[in-house]
UniProtKB/TrEMBL annotation:
<dbReference type="InterPro" id="IPR000847">
    <property type="entry name" value="LysR_HTH_N"/>
</dbReference>
<comment type="similarity">
    <text>Belongs to the LysR transcriptional regulatory family.</text>
</comment>
<dbReference type="InterPro" id="IPR058163">
    <property type="entry name" value="LysR-type_TF_proteobact-type"/>
</dbReference>
<dbReference type="InterPro" id="IPR005119">
    <property type="entry name" value="LysR_subst-bd"/>
</dbReference>
<feature type="domain" description="HTH lysR-type">
    <location>
        <begin position="1"/>
        <end position="60"/>
    </location>
</feature>
<dbReference type="Pfam" id="PF03466">
    <property type="entry name" value="LysR_substrate"/>
</dbReference>
<dbReference type="Pfam" id="PF00126">
    <property type="entry name" value="HTH_1"/>
</dbReference>
<dbReference type="InterPro" id="IPR036390">
    <property type="entry name" value="WH_DNA-bd_sf"/>
</dbReference>
<keyword id="KW-0238">DNA-binding</keyword>
<keyword id="KW-0804">Transcription</keyword>
<keyword id="KW-0805">Transcription regulation</keyword>
<dbReference type="InterPro" id="IPR036388">
    <property type="entry name" value="WH-like_DNA-bd_sf"/>
</dbReference>
<protein>
    <submittedName>
        <fullName>LysR family transcriptional regulator</fullName>
    </submittedName>
</protein>
Length: 300
């Protein structure tokens, strides 16, 4: 089919240029090859389409009729094929990504907003889940987790820097409680716990670092959440101390709603990575998405 369309197009160019030489140059082929194409068409149709002499080329009556009847349809087909080939390389379709709440709101979403504006034919589904997902056995195309939770034998791209944690408390809480001097003092304070579905549903242990020595604290408090944003709200309201990503608390700290405590003891969690099956590398939309969410280290 493609060969016939190419031959029809070649005939249309010859008819327009009224010259085998000029038409061959426009088509990027030799004069001999173009002459063979026209002769083959005439043989297949059983019609003489061109009157050819050494000096000129003119359409026969059958050629004129051919142009009138076939020309517009051929142009529509050529435009349609060009559009299809153009769209083939344009990102489109639905991409489903699963990640925890913090990763969606603070890592992915800021980078995906300009991506969505630039590629309006791409539809994104961002699903909140704190578990580790096998994307080969799920309805999701990709998943985002911290580096220490990465699935094996998957393609990965880093999407964030290491996650710096900050111990924070509201001015209201600090007014009514003793000042902390070291992480061990947390045992005498009210803390806001997080329960981790990725670690069997246990309470998250608070890790600190002092002179390269790790300090683990199992804190207690009135509140436990599985969502960092809820823990942030509770800390701002004065319900206790929280140990959360710096990126999550920075605005509240800047506005004076929270104060950072014991920063010299804080640790960094591994960066987030997006992982996905190899087959997605052929998906133009997903490839562009990776370009947008990939972590770019700031050069100093």
């Amino acid at each position: 089919m493609q060969e016939r369309l190419n031959n029809l197009h070649a005939f249309m160019v010859v008819a327009r240029e009224q010259s085998i030489t000029r038409a061959a140059m426009a088509l990027g082929m030799s004069q001999a090859s173009l002459s063979q194409v026209i002769s083959k068409m005439e043989q297949q149709l059983g019609l003489k389409l061109l009157n050819r002499t050494t000096r000129s080329i003119n359409l026969t009556e059958a050629g004129e009729q051919f142009i009138t009847l076939i020309g517009p349809a051929l142009e529509d087909i050529q435009q349609g094929l060009s559009q299809i080939m153009d769209d083939k390389h344009k990102p489109s379709g639905t991409i489903r990504i699963v990640a925890d709440d913090f990763a969606i709101q603070n890592v992915l979403w800021p980078k995906l907003q300009p991506f969505l504006q630039h590629y309006p034919k791409v539809h994104l589904e961002l699903i909140s889940d704190h578990g580790v997902v096998d994307v080969n056995k799920s309805p999701y195309d990709a998943a985002v987790v911290r580096g220490d939770l990465l699935a094996k034998d998957m393609e990965t791209v880093q999407v964030s820097a290491p996650i710096a944690l900050r111990l924070v408390a509201s001015p209201r809480y600090l007014e009514n409680n003793a000042v902390l001097k070291k992480p061990q003092d947390l045992l005498n304070h009210t803390c806001i716990n997080l329960r981790s579905p990725t670690q069997g549903g246990v309470l998250v242990t608070w890790h600190f670092l002092h002179k390269k020595k790790e300090i683990k604290i199992h804190v207690n408090g009135q509140l436990t959440f599985s969502n960092m944003h809820q823990a942030l709200d509770a800390a701002i309201a004065g319900y206790g101390l929280a140990y959360l990503p710096e990126q999550l608390v920075c605005t509240a700290v800047e506005q004076g709603h929270l104060h950072v405590l014991l920063p010299e003891y804080s640790v960094n969690l591994p960066p987030y990575f997006i992982y996905y099956p190899t087959r997605l590398q052929a998906n133009a939309g997903f490839t562009k998405l990776l370009d947008n969410v990939a972590y770019q280290a700031v050069k100093t």
